Fold this protein.
Amino acid sequence: MSAECDETTSARPGFARRNALVLAVAAILATASVVTGMTWGSQQAVLDAQGQRIGGLEGQLKSAELAKSEQVEQNVLEALGVSQGRIDKDRPVIDRLVRTAFTWDSGQSYESARADLKERHNLSEDQPFLQQFMPPSRFNEDDSGKRYYYIDTQGMNSSVALDPDIEVVKVNADQYTYAVMVDVSITSDAVIRNNANPGSVSTQRRMLLFLAVDAEGTVSNLSGVPAIGSTRHSG
């Protein structure tokens, strides 16, 4: 028994040395792993900070570019004798005219819009705008004087799809002449020919108008170009 214990005891230093080598390697790997993790975490934090910095700088650059472009545009307008304040003042006048002319959903509302434009802007019946864009409404009238509008028969309605684009084309003293581009959506709840089922016709039209506005907000020289666009059918 004593001899076996001596042999076991004498063998331990060899195992310890081998274990010490394994433990040393494990310690080195563990230390490297910790250092690598710390280094990666530090690098990631730096990258995140750089990303935020770059994002902030990009936002500042875009803002600066926008401000610069706006300033350049403002300088050009001023060089041409155009006042941005005056444009902002005229915009509601133009917007109201456009929406009055192209927003209606019945024969009666169409006639009302037409009469409103004639009175407000002192338009004569033979004025080109009224003839091209708002011609007299077609209707039949019975013995009692009741009117049956073609617009109602077709279920037609019109609306302004987007805010109009307004550009100054000429300045003469206090009178500004504008080009106005407006998208108008017109639909008709009618029976499509060659189709037994009721359907609708949808038309998107782009109108180009020209008009002048003086310092008092009075509109004159109203004219335009016939509409362009496409017609869509739906069942």
